[in-house]
Amino acid sequence: MRHGRRTHRHRSVPLPRKPMPNQANRVTLPRAFSKLGICSRKQAEKLIVDGRVRVNKRVVNDVEAWVDMASDRIELDGQPLKAHAKVYLALNKPRGLVTTRDDPEGRNTVFDCLEGLDLPFVAPVGRLDKASEGLLLFTNDTQLAQRLLDPDKDVRKIYHVQVSGRPGEAEIARMTTGMEVDGQTLTAAAVRLLRAGEKNAWLEVELTEGKNRQIRRMLEAMGLECLRLVRVAIGDIALGDLAKGATRFLTDAEVQSLQRGAGLNAAGAKSSGTAARRKQR
Fold this sequence. Notes:
Layout: E1 26-28, H1 29-35, H2 41-49, E2 53-55, E3 58-59, E4 66-68, E5 74-76, E6 79-80, E7 88-93, E8 123-124, E9 133-139, H3 142-149, E10 157-164, H4 169-177, E11 179-181, E12 184-186, E13 190-196, E14 200-207, H5 214-221, E15 226-234, E16 237-238, E17 247-249, H6 252-261
Parallel strand pairs: 9-15
Antiparallel strand pairs: 1-4, 2-3, 2-5, 5-6, 7-9, 7-17, 8-9, 10-14, 10-15, 11-12, 13-14, 15-16
Helix pairs in contact: 1-2
């Protein structure tokens, strides 16, 4: 009599789906992947559903499960997850690129500019729309990225904007006092005229909030056409003479400046960017 061979299947064991009180280290399992700089939450969800992720030696398929990053052992394909060194990168985004990793319409993305760089998983800090250009930061430091995007932190972002016509003092004052557009109050922290010609002018606009297409919508509400929009600074990080489509790693001093501006302890902060190199082709 032949006996069939027993097969051992890994059962998916449910984990808590709500955070325990007073446990700051508890996050959702996909969020843990993102915070460690392994991959995006969306990518992590696929890994989890595919049964490639274990928590404390047990397979977990629930993308809403919560884990404790300080005490739980999280594994991918049998290997424990380890945080990558923090990376901070600046890109001079050209016009025509969308700020996303994978575009369903097949358009060119900002990640095309990162090809050939030996990088861990990084994500853009905020967005610039397809028609906008200038300074865009990338990092795997999710805490800093969240703080930089938090309007309560008042991290300034400066834009140089070319508009049709010549805005007067009334239009500039309206931008800084606030205006209602599509049910939202849009306000610039500061606006000044840089230079003006017969047909168009350049404005410098400072924002501390980041609402969708904010500057363009404010200009449209006043009947002004936005011809070009270039972000030239985030906090103390300036675009400078960085070429279009080019990237550079932030210095330790620049990272510390961003951390201080975002209300984080910057003591001893280090960037691994100085050690990164382009892959050999």
